[in-house]
From TrEMBL, chain A:
Protein name according to UniProt: Guanine nucleotide-binding protein subunit gamma
GO terms for biological process, alphabetical: G protein-coupled receptor signaling pathway; pheromone-dependent signal transduction involved in conjugation with cellular fusion
Compartments reported by the entry: Membrane
Bilayer topology: Peripheral membrane protein
Domain G protein gamma: 10-93
Keyword set, alphabetical order: Lipoprotein, Membrane, Methylation, Palmitate, Prenylation, Transducer
SMART domains the record matches: G_gamma
Pfam families membership: G-gamma (PF00631)
From TrEMBL, chain B:
Pfam families in alphabetical order: WD40_Gbeta
Source species, domain of life: Eukaryota
Signal peptide, first to last residue: none
UniProt record, GO biological process: adenylate cyclase-activating glucose-activated G protein-coupled receptor signaling pathway; negative regulation of induction of conjugation with cellular fusion; negative regulation of transcription by RNA polymerase II
Species of the source: Nadsonia fulvescens var. elongata DSM 6958
Annotated WD repeat ranges: 49-90, 140-180, 181-223, 224-265, 275-309, 310-344
Protein name stated in the entry: G protein beta 2 subunit
Cellular component GO terms held in the UniProt record: G-protein beta/gamma-subunit complex; heterotrimeric G-protein complex
Keywords for the protein's UniProt record, in alphabetical order: Repeat, Transducer, WD repeat
């Protein structure tokens, strides 16, 4: 590699590191909140949003809103219930 | 000069680490100690959808949650009635080596992509098909590697991710590429559009990174680099302020965008299989994770506990999806079946 090629390579390296530094400065100046604040917001959202998959909080889906019951197909194919593993409450209905 | 800027680079990295650690004062499970654990968790297996003659790679609920589109390596997209398990439509694909499919918001189109390095949009409307219109509406060609994931952004745009290390934004009407997102150092496996802000999407990659992209500026705006192996799946938390990930390192993780850090990790000593797909329940309280060994584990996102394990597939669970109303969960598998679970 001759001197001109070496200079050109160094210029390219310099340009890339300068670009990287600009990105790192942006990242450093990013507005951040404490993880405790973020965790609290996620906890509030998860607890305040209706979710029938969490029946211990929101109760079971009422039968009039059950789309499978409306079609008359609920559990027709298999009808297995999977329960929480710590209670071992799987049943075949 | 080169030495000076390198030193400045190192100093900046050190400062970023210092700022992040000063703001990291608690993990999510520690913050949620007072939250009651989930008890009496139950899912009913409503249907086993049989019809594909190959590994099912992907499925997605329509936006009204009544239909499910699935794609398998038998070369077909099948549209299923979720509640009756009937097949509503079958779309033969030009290329059978498909990896992904997605529904448009109106339900009129599905898009799929795979090893032909292209993403094709198909009409779902059967009346239109009967009238002689071709099924394929347009094909996006431009990736130099397989298309691993695709998502509609509104009705007129599609975002794709690829093994060529890039994501691309496409226009459905013209079939042309609008933007390209370059930055990953490994094949990209999964993408997710922020449910609260469609200008932002995330991508996960074999380089172990998860990146956030802003379509308005065409730039990567945030990186998360905690995983030790390929990150196979990424999905936004329902409020759009965090993202969940699943990886070959056998863990799922939760990263908060505002705190710019990892808030939680979901794994157990018994978990030895890689995570292929994840999906949040409607509130984000539960994380459903499909594993290479055929299990679908259910995690309490707040407390970090494992709540349940659905173990009904005989091969890898390639895709887990929760319907937007939160009532149905689908698990698609390489055993060529899809199972529909309900909270009722």
């Amino acid at each position: 590699m001759n001197a001109a090629q070496q200079d050109s390579l160094n210029d390219l390296r310099l340009k890339r590191i300068l670009q990287l530094n600009e990105r790192l400065k942006e990242e450093l100046n990013r507005e951040r909140i404490h993880s405790s604040e973020a965790a609290e917001a996620l906890i509030n959202y998860a607890q305040e949003t209706r979710d029938y998959a969490v029946s211990c909080v929101w109760g079971p889906l009422q039968s009039e809103y059950d789309p499978f019951l409306k079609q008359g197909t609920s559990g027709k194919t298999h009808g297995k219930l999977h329960g929480a593993e710590n209670t071992g409450c799987c049943v075949i209905c | 000069m080169l030495k000076t800027v390198r030193e400045e680079c190192e100093a900046l990295r050190t400062q970023i680490v210092a700022v992040k650690s000063s703001l990291f004062d608690i993990t999510l499970p520690d913050a949620a100690r007072q939250v009651k654990p989930i008890t009496d968790f139950r899912l009913k297996q409503q249907h086993t959808l049989r019809g594909h003659r190959g590994k099912v790679y992907s499925c997605e609920f329509s936006h009204d949650n009544k239909l499910l589109a699935s794609v398998a390596q038998d070369g077909f997209i099948i549209i299923w009635d979720v509640y009756t398990s009937n097949k509503v439509d079958v779309i033969p694909l030009a290329n059978s080596w498909v990896l992904t499919c997605t529904y448009s918001p109106s339900g009129r189109f599905v898009a799929s992509g795979g090893l032909d390095n292209a993403c094709t949009v198909y009409r779902v409307n059967t009346a239109s098909h009967a009238s002689g219109n071709p099924r394929a509406l347009c094909t996006f060609k431009g990736h130099a590697g397989y298309v691993s994931a695709c998502k509609f952004r509104g009705e007129n745009q599609v975002i794709t991710s690829s093994g060529d290390l890039t994501c691309m934004l496409w226009d459905v009407n013209s079939g042309k590429k609008l933007q390209e997102f370059i930055g990953h150092l490994g094949a990209i496996n999964s993408i997710s559009i922020n449910p609260q802000n469609s200008h932002i999407f995330s991508s996960s990659s074999c380089d172990g990174m998860v990146k956030l992209w802003d379509i308005r500026t065409n730039n990567c705006i945030q990186n998360f680099a905690s995983h030790q192996d390929d990150v196979n799946s990424v999905e936004f938390f329902p409020d759009g302020n965090a993202i969940g990930t699943g990886s070959d390192d056998t863990t799922c993780r939760l990263f908060d965008l505002r705190a710019d850090c990892q808030l939680s990790i979901f794994t157990s000593p018994n978990t030895v299989s890689g995570v292929s797909s994840i999906s949040f329940s409607r509130s984000g309280r539960l994380l459903f994770a499909g594993y290479e060994n055929g299990e679908c584990q259910v995690w309490d996102v707040l407390r970090g506990d494992r709540v349940s394990c659905l173990n009904e597939h005989s091969s890898k669970v390639s895709n887990v999806t929760v319907s937007s109303d939160g009532i149905c969960i689908s698990t698609a598998s390489w055993d060529s079946t899809i199972k529909i679970w309900s909270t009722t």
